[in-house]
Amino acid sequence: MTPDQMRDASLLDLFRLEAEAQKQVLEAGLLILEREPSNAAQLEACMRAAHSLKGAARIVGLDAGVQVAHAMEDLLVAAQEGVLRLQPEHIDTLLQGSDLLLRIGQSQPEEGLEERVESVSKLLQELHGQALPSLPPALAATIPSPVPLPPETGSQPAATQYAESERDERAHRVLRISAERFDHLIDLSGKSVVEFQRTRPLSESLHRLKRQQESARRTLETLREHLLGQLQDPTTQTLFNESRNLLIECQQQLQAHQELFEDFVWHGSQRTQQLYDLALASRMRPFADGVTGMARMLRDLGRSLGKQVRLEIEGEHTQVDRDVLERLEAPLTHLLRNAVDHGIEEPAVRSAKGKPTEGRVLLQASHHAGMLVLKVSDDGAGIDLKDVAQAVIERHLAPSEQVARMTEDELLAFLFLPGFSMSNQVTEVSGRGVGLDVVQHEIRRMRGNVRLTQQAEGGCHFHIELPLTLSVVRALVVTIGGEAYAFPLVQIERMLRVPRSSIVQLEGRQHFWLDGEHVGLISAAQLLQCEERPGEDDNIAVVLIRNREQCHGLAVESFTGEFTLVLMPLDARLGKLRDVAAGALLSDGTPVLILDIDDLLNSVDKLLGEGRLDRVDAGSQIRHSQRKRVLVVDDSLTVRELERKLLLSRGYEVAVAVDGMDGWNALRGDAFDLLITDIDMPRMDGIELVRHIRQDSRLRSLPVMVVSYKDREEDRRRGLEAGADYYLAKASFHDEALLDAVQTLIGAPRE
Fold it and tell me: Which of 444, 467, 490 is the endpoint of a domain?
């Protein structure tokens, strides 16, 4: 490619960018002019847009573009100067001209484009010429001729204009990178945030080490006082002093390093979060970018159906993720076309009802509670529920007796079924029964939901909730089978605790009452093929998910909490895992699987169809018939074995852990009736272990006994304040004291 050809290619790219921008200005202004033909500001804006496109086309050498833009400019100038009043047919032709200007700039010209250019140019000239005879001769002489002019030789040569355009481009440079590479950047920045949060446990370990050093120093001072009272050997005193000084020096160094580390952690976490926020913000685009041309689409569709329709958009500057915005085009198009075809009445009908002849469709976008909320509403006739009920009966979807008892929401839910349509005939617009089904399917794929309601003043209202970005998800993390799983918040109805006593058996399936409705109860562990580990609580943790009109309750082991999770796609070699959408990491590095709600609903339907549901509370009944289990946590092998043998001899089942962290992992993965723990242990001491237990919803009711060498009153008070139920000093430890305390806390062992 020669330098001239390269320059021409660059100019053509610039023209295409300008044509896209000016086309948006023209379309927006022309739609307003159709309602307000004398709007001076919009006439000026449209005329300037056409003039700019004419100049740009001349620089690039697109004669067809110059011809169309010049004819458009003539017509708009005539309207500006009061020569003619813009009518719908004028707007139609001007919109066709703006479409042509965008097509003219394509690198590969369309077949028949030249004929189309000639046709539109001729039509524009004829419309312009129709206004001239009615003008006074003096005024008509001032109106530009509709005949295309020869190339202009303005005061600014083309090369200078090109140079200025190039400088403009450099001043507002846009770096183009592939979507795959940018997504990889988002993924890495998100992982860096999670990975940096793993420095917190290290900081906590340094704090524990500092406490242990302080404890060692106090112990050394106590030992020194005891020995100095019995032995006055200078060598011994020197050794003690050197040990004390060395320990103090270690403490000072640890303090200095700890302060540096905490400063590094704070600044590092701020930087990684800023990096992630900036990368995420780079994906965001204003909502208006995704709905460009929809106002024009509704206007043209309305005219083809003999209706007058206006689209109003609120929240154009609402920031939305690029991927979400692209995938929203299809469902929003379906909803808007349905509003025109099914909702908005013809002008005569609207006049008879006392409505304005022009129908109104409102599209709103906003942020709420970390979600993108879209609302699509119209002021049309709404949906006739009697017609919906009749269609349900005719399609044998439900018996007439049941349909007669259905609520409005239940009837409207049928409109989302595949193949369900309220149109009596198939047209280019509707009647094939794929509209709302496609909408719901696509919204669910984006981890969102859509609801349809009737408005009191008439018309329909669609409420859509979506995540702001597909890179992160706000989720409820639960425990199922001892592992962490996440439910996207936007796809669940609610979370609650159901008393075991309120569960009833109906038609071979467990149910409970909620807001006057029977809700089926299903074991989430059975769905995910995990080992169920029910707790001893009187309440069952339940997550509600909905499949159209039916609601299901999934019984989980416990609720961990709500988290914002950075999505981590699973390895492609795994294929599509049933019931799983993606993975993520919690702040402590714990891996969590994010569940696919649509897959879960399919799995529920399959279990119901096969009729092989397990009882949710069956595992709890089995547990009561087993021996009571005790977990012993102590870093001393001698103490662990002594306590284990004592408890085994009395008939208890015993497990052991070597320190607090090992004990915490054992408690999270298995069920115990009692915990016996020491205080001074590496990695996690006993006080911290007790606090973790009391903060966990599943373990907070677990009885805890502390057995420690520390027998001072302040040590005993610390243990009990942390949440221990019993404190036993090892100094006064003997076999019967331990066994009596265990029996007091959990009773005699079961046989």
Answer: 467
